[in-house]
C-alpha cells in the first residue's frame, strides 16, 4: 500500500544533533552539508540535508578549516548551522579525533575495554570512546580522576590543555611531548598548566597546532569552540599521511567553470564544479577564485559523488617537466622517438597521455608528422615520470577525424568543423577536395551546416569530406527489442533485416493515450512489435520514438481463475466472463504494490478471483497488473451506503465501498471524509482482498522552489509560500521543461518545479523553465515576449493561455504594459498561466562592496531607506555590452540595480 514514510515539514522533525558531518553534492550543480542526527526514539543515525552552513560567514577565521573537515566527514553541522562559537564536549572531541585519524572502521573490532567506574558518555559516542582507549588516546588514570566530577565525563567541556594532549596523541607525537614534559613554556600563566599536560602543550605549540591567547597566556582551562577545534585538526593534517577515501591529490590537467580534472597516480580523475565549491591554498586561510587554480599545479580535491566540494592548491608551481624537441617517428610499444640536434631519445606514453595539435585539439599519436616541433610534458612526482601531454608547437597536420560542419565559406575555401571533442578547427581546401554523401559526389556549396562528417587532412589541407548524416532524418519500422540497459533499439523495416540503433541520453517518446511514456512502455516483439517512426540526429542517435500503431490487446477488469507457477500459465475471466489463458515470461511487465516487482513476488497474489488488468499479443502477456488502487475523479459519494464512485481512465466508472479509510492531503493534517469532494482527483488504495478502500490519496499540483537535492537519499528540499518541506522522489517520474526524462541528479537548487502529489507522495515532478533577462519587445499581435537573458542569448517566449504581469505589488493582464528595457522573470504557473514578474529597479550612487559577505552598499537618498543589498553570485554587472568587475565600481558612480526577491541580479552603469 502507500508509503508510510513522512513527507511533512522538516521543521517538525524532533532530532538530537550528533556531531560529525558528511558532504552531499546535488545533481544540478549545488552542494550541501548533511547533518547527521540521532533519533531520540530509535537511537539510529539519520541524515537531513541543508544548505551550506549559514552561520559560517565568508572571511570567518576558521572558514577554510570548517569546510575542509566537513567535506572529509570529520565535522558535522546541525540543520544548516555549524555553531562555530559553541563549546566542545570531551566526547565530541574524541569522536572528531577518531574520524580525523580515519580509523572509525576499526570500531567494535578491538579487545574488550573495561571502563573506569562511573565513567559516562552518551550512547552515540561509546564506540568512539572505546576505540580511543584502545588507541591510547585516553589515559585510564586521568579519565578516572575526571569521572569524579559532578559533570559526566562525556558532557564535560573540553579545555585547551586537554585538547592539546588529544591532538598530539592523535597525530602520534607522544615522544615529542615526553621530551619536553619538563620544559616551561614562555606563557605568563605557565604555572597554571597541569604537569601531566605540559609536554603536550609544548609539542602542540612547537608543531603550530595552537597558539596562545591575548596577554601572552595559554589559558589551559579555557574552553575550546567548534571553530577553534576545526582549525586545530585541519592544521594537524599537514603532520600526518592519513588518506581520506574522498580526497585525491594530483596535477590539474583541465579546468573550467564546470569541471576540474586531476592526473593522479597514472590516471585522470574528473570532478564537476558548481557555485558552492570552495577554493583555497594550503598556505593561506583566505578563499581564492577558481581562476587562481592553474593548469598543472598540484591540487587536493575532496569530492562527493563526482562533485568537487573542496579544492586546495597544495603547490601552485607547474608540476610538469617540459621537454621541447623534434618528433621523428613512433615505435612499437607506445614509444615516441624524438631528436635534439644530434641526440636521439625515446619516451613511452600510455592511454592516458593527451596528444594535441597546434590548436589544442585532441589528436591520435599516428597523426604526428615527422619534423614537427613538439613539447612533451611529463609529471615529475612519481618514479614512472608518466607522459601527461604531447603538444605540437609547429608542424604539418595529417589526420582523420569525425565531427560536425560549423561553416562552409566558398569565397575563401575554408571549412570550420566542430570535432568529436567539441572543439573547433578550420582548414582550407583546394580543387582536389572530394565531398560525398551516400556514395554521391557533392560540391562544397551543397554542404549543410550541422551535418555529421568524416574528414581527412593532409599537409594542413582538407582532402575529403564524407557526410555521414545530414542533420536529421526519420525512418519507420517495427520494434523487435529495446536493449536491457536502455541504450539500444533493435527494429526491422518492411521486408528488411534487423537493424540496431543507439538511443540518445533522453529520447522523446510519444504513445497516444499514455502520459509521459517511458522506454519500458514500448512493446518489442519479433512479429507484432510497435510500429514506430524514429527520428535520428546527425550522429545517428535515436532522439524521438513515435508509436504509430500497436497490435497489443487489453483485458481490463479481469479476474484470476488459476495460475500454474511451473508452466507460467495464467487463466482469467475477462469482464464479460469469457475465459482466456496467457503465458508469462521474463519480459512480462509486472505491476503491483511494490517498487521492485518480481514474478516470484506477484505469484502469491495470483489467487482465485483476484482482479487484474492484462495486455497481450496472441497468448503472451505483455503486462500484468494486480489492481491495488484506482486513479480518477470522484463522481459520487454515497455516505449512507458508504460507497465512492470514480471516473477512471477510458471513461470507466468504478464504485468501491469504504469503511474508515485513512485520507492524505498534502499540506493538511487531520483530513476527514468531509474534505473529499465530488470532482476531486484521487487514488483509492484498496485493501489486500481488494474489497474496500483502505486509504484515499488526494491529488494536488503545487509549484515549489527547489532548495537542495540529496541524491543518495532520493530526496529534495522544497519551499512554497514560505514553508519548507522535504519530498522523496523514489516513486516519482521526473521530466524536464521540454518533456524529456530526467534523473534526480539532473535537478539543481533554485529551479522551479511543478510537483503532482498523491497524498503526501510525489508522483510527478516537472522542471519549469525560468527565463530572466531584459525585455526587447512585447508583441501583442503574436502574444510573445522577446527577452535577452544574462548570458547574451535572445529568446522568444510564446504566451499561451492566461497571463499575469506582476509589477510593484500590482497585477496586470495586458502584455502591452511591458516596455522594452524592463527586466523580467518569466515562468508558467501550475494551471498554465504565464507569470511575468517585473524586477524592481533602484537608481542610486554606489558606496562600497564587501566581498566577504557579498553585501552591496549604495548611498541613501533619505536616512531611513535600505541601502544594503546582497549581490547574486552570477549577477550581470556591465556598462553597455561591456562586462565589469564589481571591484571596478567607484564611490559615487551612478548605477541602476535590478532586484529579484531583494537580491541584485543586474548592475547597470549608464
UniProtKB/TrEMBL annotation:
Annotated keywords: Signal
Domain SLH: 49-111, 184-247
InterPro entries with a match to the protein in the record: SLH_dom
Pfam families on file: SLH
Signal sequence range: 1-34
Domain of life: Bacteria
Protein name in the entry: S-layer homology domain-containing protein
Amino acid at each position: 500500500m502507500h508509503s508510510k514514510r513522512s513527507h511533512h515539514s522538516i521543521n517538525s522533525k524532533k532530532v538530537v544533533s550528533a556531531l560529525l558531518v558528511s558532504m552531499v553534492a546535488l545533481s544540478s550543480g549545488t552542494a550541501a552539508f548533511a547533518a547527521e542526527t540521532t533519533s531520540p526514539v530509535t537511537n539510529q543515525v539519520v541524515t537531513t540535508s541543508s544548505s551550506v552552513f549559514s552561520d559560517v560567514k565568508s572571511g570567518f577565521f576558521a572558514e577554510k578549516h570548517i569546510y575542509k573537515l566537513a567535506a572529509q566527514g570529520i565535522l558535522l553541522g546541525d540543520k544548516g548551522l555549524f555553531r562555530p562559537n559553541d563549546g566542545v564536549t570531551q566526547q565530541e572531541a574524541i569522536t572528531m579525533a577518531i574520524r580525523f585519524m580515519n580509523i572509525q572502521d576499526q570500531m567494535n573490532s578491538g579487545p574488550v575495554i573495561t571502563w573506569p567506574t562511573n565513567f559516562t558518555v552518551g550512547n552515540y559516542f561509546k564506540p568512539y570512546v572505546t576505540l580511543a582507549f584502545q588507541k591510547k588516546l585516553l589515559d585510564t588514570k586521568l579519565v578516572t580522576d575526571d569521572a569524579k566530577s559532578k559533570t559526566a565525563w562525556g558532557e564535560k567541556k573540553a579545555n585547551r590543555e586537554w585538547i592539546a594532549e588529544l591532538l598530539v596523541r592523535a597525530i602520534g607525537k607522544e615522544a615529542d611531548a615526553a621530551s619536553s614534559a619538563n620544559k616551561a613554556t614562555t606563557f605568563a600563566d605557565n604555572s597554571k598548566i597541569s604537569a601531566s599536560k605540559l609536554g603536550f602543550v609544548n609539542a602542540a605549540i612547537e608543531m603550530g597546532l595552537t597558539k596562545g591567547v591575548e596577554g601572552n597566556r595559554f589559558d589551559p582551562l579555557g574552553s575550546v569552540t567548534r571553530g577553534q577545534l576545526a582549525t586545530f585538526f585541519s592544521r594537524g593534517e599537514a603532520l600526518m599521511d592519513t588518506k581520506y577515501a574522498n580526497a585525491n591529490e594530483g596535477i590539474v590537467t583541465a579546468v573550467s567553470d564546470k569541471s576540474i580534472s586531476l592526473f593522479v597516480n597514472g590516471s585522470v580523475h574528473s570532478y564537476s564544479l558548481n557555485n558552492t565549491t570552495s577554493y583555497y591554498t594550503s598556505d593561506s586561510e583566505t578563499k581564492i577564485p577558481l581562476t587562481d587554480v592553474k593548469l598543472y599545479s598540484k591540487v587536493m580535491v575532496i569530492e562527493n559523488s563526482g562533485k568537487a566540494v573542496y579544492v586546495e592548491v597544495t603547490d601552485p608551481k607547474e608540476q610538469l617537466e617540459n621537454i621541447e624537441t623534434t618528433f621523428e617517428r613512433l615505435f612499437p610499444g607506445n614509444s615516441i622517438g624524438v631528436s635534439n640536434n644530434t641526440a636521439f631519445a625515446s619516451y613511452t606514453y600510455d592511454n592516458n597521455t593527451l596528444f594535441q595539435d597546434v590548436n589544442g585539439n585532441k589528436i591520435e599519436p599516428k597523426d604526428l608528422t615527422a619534423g614537427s616541433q613538439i613539447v612533451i610534458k611529463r609529471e615529475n612526482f612519481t618514479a614512472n615520470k608518466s607522459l601527461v601531454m604531447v603538444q605540437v608547437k609547429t608542424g604539418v597536420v595529417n589526420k582523420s577525424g569525425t565531427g560536425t560542419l560549423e561553416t562552409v565559406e566558398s569565397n575563401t575555401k575554408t571549412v570550420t568543423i566542430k570535432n568529436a571533442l567539441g572543439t573547433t578547427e578550420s582548414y582550407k581546401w583546394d580543387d582536389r577536395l572530394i565531398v560525398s554523401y551516400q556514395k554521391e559526389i557533392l560540391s562544397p556549396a551543397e554542404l549543410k551546416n550541422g551535418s555529421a562528417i568524416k574528414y581527412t587532412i593532409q599537409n594542413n589541407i582538407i582532402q575529403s569530406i564524407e557526410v555521414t548524416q545530414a542533420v536529421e532524418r526519420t525512418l519507420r519500422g517495427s520494434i523487435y527489442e529495446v536493449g536491457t540497459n536502455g541504450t539500444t533499439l533493435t527494429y526491422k523495416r518492411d521486408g528488411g533485416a534487423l537493424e540496431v540503433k543507439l538511443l540518445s541520453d533522453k529520447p522523446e517518446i510519444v504513445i497516444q493515450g499514455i502520459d509521459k511514456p517511458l522506454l519500458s512502455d514500448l512493446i518489442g516483439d519479433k512479429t507484432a512489435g510497435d510500429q514506430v517512426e524514429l527520428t535520428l540526429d546527425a550522429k545517428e542517435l535515436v532522439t524521438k520514438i513515435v508509436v504509430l500503431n500497436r497490435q497489443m490487446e487489453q483485458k481490463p477488469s479481469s479476474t484470476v481463475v488459476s495460475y500454474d507457477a511451473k508452466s507460467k500459465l495464467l487463466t482469467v475471466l475477462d469482464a464479460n466472463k469469457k475465459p482466456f489463458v496467457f503465458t508469462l515470461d521474463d519480459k512480462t511487465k509486472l505491476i503491483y504494490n511494490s517498487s521492485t516487482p518480481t514474478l516470484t513476488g506477484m505469484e502469491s497474489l495470483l489467487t482465485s478471483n483476484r482482479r487484474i488488468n492484462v495486455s497481450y499479443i496472441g497468448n503472451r502477456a505483455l503486462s500484468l497488473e494486480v489492481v491495488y488502487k484506482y486513479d480518477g475523479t470522484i463522481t459520487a459519494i454515497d455516505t449512507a451506503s458508504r460507497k465512492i464512485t470514480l471516473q477512471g481512465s477510458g471513461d470507466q466508472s468504478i464504485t468501491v465501498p469504504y469503511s474508515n479509510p485513512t485520507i492524505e492531503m498534502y499540506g493538511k493534517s487531520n483530513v476527514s471524509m468531509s474534505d473529499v469532494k465530488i470532482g476531486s482527483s484521487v487514488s483509492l488504495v484498496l485493501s489486500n482482498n481488494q474489497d474496500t478502500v483502505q486509504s484515499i490519496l488526494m491529488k494536488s499540483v503545487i509549484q515549489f522552489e527547489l532548495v537542495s537535492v540529496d541524491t543518495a537519499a532520493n530526496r529534495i528540499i522544497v519551499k512554497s509560500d514560505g514553508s519548507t518541506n522535504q519530498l522523496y522522489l523514489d516513486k516519482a517520474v521526473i521530466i524536464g521543461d521540454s518533456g524529456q526524462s530526467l534523473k534526480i541528479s539532473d535537478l539543481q537548487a533554485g529551479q522551479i518545479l511543478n510537483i503532482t502529489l498523491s497524498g503526501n507522495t510525489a508522483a510527478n515532478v516537472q522542471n519549469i523553465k525560468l527565463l530572466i533577462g531584459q525585455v526587447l519587445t512585447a508583441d501583442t499581435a503574436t502574444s510573445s515576449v522577446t527577452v535577452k537573458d544574462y548570458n547574451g542569448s535572445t529568446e522568444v517566449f510564446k504566451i499561451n493561455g492566461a497571463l499575469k504581469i506582476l509589477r510593484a505589488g500590482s497585477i496586470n493582464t495586458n502584455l502591452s504594459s511591458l516596455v522594452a528595457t524592463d527586466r523580467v522573470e518569466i515562468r508558467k504557473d501550475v494551471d498554465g498561466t504565464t507569470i511575468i514578474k517585473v524586477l524592481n529597479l533602484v537608481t542610486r550612487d554606489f558606496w562600497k562592496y564587501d566581498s566577504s559577505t557579498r553585501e552591496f552598499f549604495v548611498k541613501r537618498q533619505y536616512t531611513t531607506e535600505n541601502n544594503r543589498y546582497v549581490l547574486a553570485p552570477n549577477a550581470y554587472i556591465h556598462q553597455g555590452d561591456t562586462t565589469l568587475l564589481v571591484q571596478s565600481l567607484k564611490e559615487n558612480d551612478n548605477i541602476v540595480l535590478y532586484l529579484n526577491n531583494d537580491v541584485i541580479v543586474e548592475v547597470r552603469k549608464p
